[in-house]
Amino acid sequence: MDQFTLNLLVVGATFALYFGIAIWARAGSTAEFYAAGGGVHPVLNGMATGADWMSAASFISMAGIIAFGGYDTSAYLMGWTGGYVLLAMLLAPYLRKFGKFTVPEFIGDRFYSGTARVIAVICLLIASITYVIGQMSGVGVAFSRFLEVEASTGLFIGAAVVFAYAVLGGMKGITYTQVAQYVVLIIAYTIPAIFISLNLTGNPIPALGLFADAKSTGEPLLTTLNGMLADLGFSSYTQQSDTTLNMFLFTLSLMIGTAGLPHVIVRFFTVPKVSDARSSAGWALVFIALLYLTAPAVAAMARINLVNTVYPEGTTAAPLAYEARPDWVKNWEKTGLLKFEDKNGDGLINYVASKDANELDVNRDIITLANPEIADLPGWVIALVAAGGLAAALSTAAGLLMAISSAVSHDLIKGQINPGISEKGELLAARVSMAVAIVLATYLGLNPPGFAAQTVALAFGLAASSIFPALMMGIFSKRVNSKGAVMGMLAGLLTTLVYIFLHKGWFFVAGTNSFTDADPLFLSIKSTSFGAIGAMINFAVAYFVSNATDDVPADVQELVESIRIPKGAGAATGH
Amino acid sequence: MADKSSSNAYWRANIRTIQLYLVIWFVCSFGFGILLRPMLSGIGIGGTDLGFWFAQQGSIIVFLILIFAYAARMNKLDKEHGVEE
């Protein structure tokens, strides 16, 4: 059986499973559509949160970025896990006690202001749509490879599947489907990693293989990799090249963005008890860590295998001839995501650090998917990875579309514009907003502002600068009032958004940027790292404005008192 | 609802716990992984140093321990102060 048929079979089988579960658990009422009625076990909820959380950015894109960035890109690993500590201690239990369905509802009630709620909706929409753009580029890469079509065609097919999928089920369908998706994606990520780790180091646990000795040289794997890279003129894999300031702020942005992203926070509204909200964050991180502890090994080993493919005789000998290139190179050339240009006309694939002499252009987002092909693993492993990548992208895109649609239909239309809207009208509005979001994200995904994980990192910066500070101050301060929160959110969001647009193009339209991340506007801070600064601005503005204006009303102060203690938590309610 | 003084004491104990855990969170990620890495460069591990390990794996393990430790500690505090569900 050829690879294409095998891919179709494995991907088809997993899709049948997800759609089957979605239909079986079809959402009936609006409450079920948003939050599944509040009866999900912490371990299952943790697994579903893991699937929701680990998107195309984690599964498809991250290892590729680390493979080419080395130590400098550790921010992705620390940032996208460390945020769960903040979530468990600073937000989840209190928001669960508050007992409503959406993040803007909390902000609206705590800051006793419709304006605050609308601004929270806007922050949420901007962060979520940016996030979906990143997902769509990942979906595009995965579909283009396994259907063997051009990247943009893959993107259109992916968009149609994501939309059909998100409209069909609500959260309820999604929770159980996501448990299935988690299982598929973690198996798909781990199995090739185990094979590759065994090949390179003889150690069956990739996370340990990363620090083991390479079979080929007898020296540590990372020493071997550094040696290869040095021969080709690349910077060291394990040393720092980025500035400490940028690395620090980038890690911080990703961490507080994690704790501020609405589609993750919403998960903790659906657990039965406040104490479950704390342990659910832990279980989510357990399932996320399984992938995140493997990812750095996948990254380093993929880089070694890539260099070994191009330099079969060693990095000091001549590279491979283009005519002798392996099948995986030919397959990825079809998608346009891997390109060879024979600059010096010698017919050899010269892969080196120097931009002028380098002839091999590898899109970072293909590394995880191409990894089993590069390592020459069996066909079923390759098909499994394609299925895993799609599971990751689909589950997160669906979760984000849910967050977007509930923000528009529930918070904006029902909460502010037309409180008398029927359940049917609300569901319709939810679906229309999903459609609009996906069309917009697909359009912008054609020329994405970066590789999937980088685009997603921008979304985290936006969430970090706007939503996280408002939630945290709402819980930990009784002094921050509506004016402070509104001004804080606006200041944090706008400075971050402008900083991102200055570097990535206005409204992400390519070519309209005045600066690049290689040479950023302010100190050495890249646009992906600015969220932390935005958050500090948000905190500072909220603090000063609140102190200069009136006190928080007594009944709201009582609300804050009550969310601080677990006692008396009921089931989550809609209004 | 619990009486005012007991829930205030509960909240203060919670804040102290959070502060302690956030210090550990910070030192093991931003500290060992980034800012203090030069100080750990003498401790070798598999071709690199301890700071690299903390940045790519160690911090994640610490995060996991922190969350479960916090959940357990808070369950105990909930009971001690009579504010459990």
Notes on the structure:
The complex is a heterodimer of chains A (575) and B (85). Chain A is mostly helical and 575 residues long. Chain A has a single domain, classed as Sodium/glucose cotransporter, CATH 1.20.1730.10. Chain A contains 22 helices and two strands. Chain A has a two-stranded antiparallel ribbon. In chain A, α5 runs antiparallel to α14. The longest helix of chain A is centred in the last third of the chain and has 39 residues, at 379-417. The mean pLDDT of chain A is 88. The mean pLDDT of chain B is 92. Chain B has one domain. Chain B has helices at residues 4-35, 50-80, and strands at residues 44-45, 48-49. The radius of gyration of chain B is 18 Å and the shape is elongated. Chain B has two helices and two strands, in the order αββα. Chain B is mostly helical and 85 residues long. The N and C termini of chain B lie close together (10 Å). In chain B, strands 1-2 form a two-stranded antiparallel ribbon. In chain B, α1 (4-35) packs antiparallel against α2 (50-80). The interface between A and B is large, with 52 and 43 residues. Chain B: Residues 8-84 form the Sodium symporter small subunit domain. Chain B: This is DUF4212 domain-containing protein. Chain B: Keywords: Membrane, Transmembrane, Transmembrane helix. Chain B: It comes from Sedimentimonas flavescens. Chain B: The chain crosses the membrane at residues 20-40, 52-72.
